[in-house]
Amino acid sequence: GENVEQHPSTLSVQEGDSAVIKCTYSDSASNYFPWYKQELGKGPQLIIDIRSNVGEKKDQRIAVTLNKTAKHFSLHITETQPEDSAVYFCAASRRGGGADGLTFGKGTHLIIQP
Amino acid sequence: DTGVSQDPRHKITKRGQNVTFRCDPISEHNRLYWYRQTLGQGPEFLTYFQNEAQLEKSRLLSDRFSAERPKGSFSTLEIQRTEQGDSAMYLCASSIGTGYEQYFGPGTRLTVT
Asked: Could you tell me how many CB contacts below 8 A there are between chain A and chain B?
């Protein structure tokens, strides 16, 4: 089955700086890669996603890049703000290929220092 | 659009008891997923329904766990003979048939004492 590795486990950045979280996956048939933000006591919130036919996607301060050859994808957050502090999860799935359930990484605790 | 709802939000039960959780997906979302999340870990996939058909089950879904979605709308997850290792957050997500995005509910936190 799919295995997703996520790094770092904790990331502390100064407010206004950029943050980068990286993930690798093992199943070359995976074709869908979402990122979720989870705040304490809440369910994961989808913030951005990318499909395997695209190399990069951007939404305001958030961007995701995908390298299918190397089987890794990254989340980039620019101009970080205090409300960006949360746990971020990457995930992968083989959507439509009999494995629609998401496989998640272990999460990155992002701390924005004022 | 009211989002995915789950009930109850918290459940404390004694070891050996049965518990049942309910998930109401976003209206018109015909795909429904169950995940389990333990402290400090990412969610782990348990099972998924398209309409009322259960199409995928993880090996994590032991024979003490059963999920149903009888009319293709809400779903229930039952755990029989609970064990302390079942203590976790149980998350439900839904997606529209042609879509890839899964939207999560707030979860049900289960504590087995």
From this structure: 61
